[in-house]
Design goal:
Elements: H1 9-16, H2 27-47, H3 56-68, E1 72-77, E2 81-88, E3 93-99, E4 118-120, E5 126-128, H4 135-151, E6 158-165, H5 173-179, H6 182-185, E7 191-202, E8 206-207, E9 211-214, E10 216-225, E11 229-230, H7 240-258, E12 265-274, E13 280-281, E14 284-293, H8 296-316, E15 326-327, E16 332-334, E17 337-339, H9 341-355, E18 360-361, H10 374-377, E19 385-393, H11 395-402, H12 420-439
Parallel strand pairs: 3-6, 3-7, 7-19, 8-18
Antiparallel strand pairs: 1-2, 2-6, 4-5, 8-19, 9-17, 10-14, 10-15, 10-16, 11-13, 12-14
Helix pairs in contact: 2-4, 2-12, 4-12, 7-8, 9-12
Length: 449
């Protein structure tokens, strides 16, 4: 469809998107009719995932879809990032973001469109690749939302930035896009929105709450130096395995004994590497950690405590000052993602009116997952943002699991899957309603149940 590039944007939109009329039309029916386009697009993204920072084909396809919907598109922002701009007269600027990267996982979902992809990552290592966290749905919902907005220009005024963000799984892509001048090269947003499909939430349900949406995340290494010797003569060395083991155990006191019981925090040692043979005491051990918190003060306390514990365990073991354990600066990090309370209340109200209050859930988080969407918000001055979840698993799957059947696979599992049609349709509908609330010139008529 390259010929579309030379046509006016309004004409492009009318060619590519089913006619849905003004904002008072039945939005749900319009989106359902567009699933003939969105369904194959979702399956394409799922079949062809790409790893963080090397999402070249994914970015190209997303850019093509956004151009086809009538957006002016710039590629290569912050690496493989995609920015689509849909202008529609004077008004606020709204950023809508979708992440693009897959995970280094071999898919075992059994889906007919399961990924068989393999790819070399930015470090030169080859892995199987899978969309095991729903980014395929996020991109599809972004395209669907833009198609609806392009088709109903009479219902809103302003500018929409459609963001295809790389490397969310390595919590670095958003920061790279900001560093590449996202807010200088393109209109600076007055608001920012994102969604995430959840396999642990029933299809048809939405979760939208003020305050903490995702925790902060910091990845760091501890290098523990020792003195190598024979395993049968430990008195001649300093065993880094023993020192590192003491550090691992002592780190757990940070959360258990230094944080208030009402302050969430996690310090997990995910990797411990040392030595080469049974009877050799090595001269080095390496630990890899992930650290999670829900506010900046707790985050700072944990990071400072890790350094204090590592260095002083080394001193207690008799290591000289120039051989103390080294704690790297965070290799990858993101602040907490916080939903703006006023904006959340506004959108929760319109979504409850549109879908019915029973469709909005306030289920507690099941872990301290992180999201680098925070970087789009954590600027000076801050950008108010809202991040909401869309259900991805049919209710009957939960009933089957409760009756002793197969459990519902969680995110980052090789068995991960969602029901694409209800997830995509509800995601597009919710995001479109949210955009029209913020940019709309007339109310959206409730679609009903």
């Amino acid at each position: 469809m390259k010929f579309l590039a030379c046509l006016p944007l309004v004409l492009v939109a009318s060619l590519c998107v089913p006619s849905v009329g003004a904002a008072g039309s039945d939005l749900r029916d319009a989106i359902a009719a567009d699933y003939d386009h969105l369904g194959p697009l979702f399956e394409h993204f799922h079949r062809h995932p790409e790893l963080s920072y090397v999402e070249h084909e994914t970015a190209a396809r997303l850019a093509a879809e956004l151009r086809e919907a009538g957006l002016a598109v710039t590629e290569g922002v912050g690496g493989t990032g995609v920015v689509g701009v849909l202008e529609n007269g004077p008004g606020p600027v709204l950023l809508v973001r979708a992440d693009m990267d897959g995970l280094p996982i071999a898919e075992k979902s059994g889906l007919p469109y399961a990924s068989e992809a393999r790819q070399v990552d930015v470090e030169g290592n080859e892995f199987p690749v899978m969309h095991a966290c729903g980014h395929d749905m996020h991109m599809t919902a972004l395209v669907g939302t833009m198609r609806q907005l392009a088709a109903r220009r009479d219902a809103w005024r302003g500018t929409v930035l459609a963001i295809g963000q790389p490397a969310e799984e390595r919590i670095g892509g958003a920061r790279k896009m900001i560093a590449d001048g996202l807010y200088e090269r393109f209109p600076r947003p007055d608001f920012a929105l994102a969604l995430h499909v959840s396999s642990l939430l029933e299809t048809g349900m939405l979760t939208l709450d003020p305050g903490i949406a995702f925790s902060s995340s910091d990845s760091l290494d501890i290098i523990v130096h020792g003195v190598g010797t024979h395993g049968a003569a430990p008195q001649f060395g300093k065993d880094p395995v023993v020192i590192a083991s003491q550090i691992v155990l002592a780190l757990q006191t940070l959360v258990a004994r230094e944080l208030s019981p009402f302050e969430p925090g996690v310090v997990t040692v995910g990797s411990f590497h040392a030595g080469t043979k049974h009877n050799i005491i090595s001269d080095e051990a390496r630990l890899q950690l992930t650290v999670r918190a829900d506010d900046a003060a707790v985050r700072d306390k944990l990071l400072a405590g890790i350094r204090r514990i590592a260095e002083n365990v080394g001193r207690a073991a008799g290591l000289p000052e120039d051989r103390l354990p080294e704690v790297t600066a965070p290799l990858a990090s993101t602040p907490p993602t916080l939903n703006d309370p006023a904006l959340t209340a506004r959108l929760r109200g319109v979504l409850a009116t549109h879908f019915g209050a029973a469709r909005l859930s306030s289920r507690p988080r099941v872990g301290m997952g992180a999201e680098d969407f925070a970087y789009f918000l954590d600027v000076d001055p801050p950008v108010p943002g809202v991040y909401f979840r869309v259900g991805g698993t049919p209710a009957e799957a939960f009933a089957t699991a409760a009756a002793g059947g197969p459990p519902v696979p969680a995110h980052h599992s090789p068995l991960f899957k969602i029901a694409p049609r209800p997830a995509v349709v509800n995601g597009v509908e919710a995001m479109t309603v949210a955009v029209l609330e913020l940019l709309g010139v007339s109310p959206v008529v409730a679609a009903g149940d």
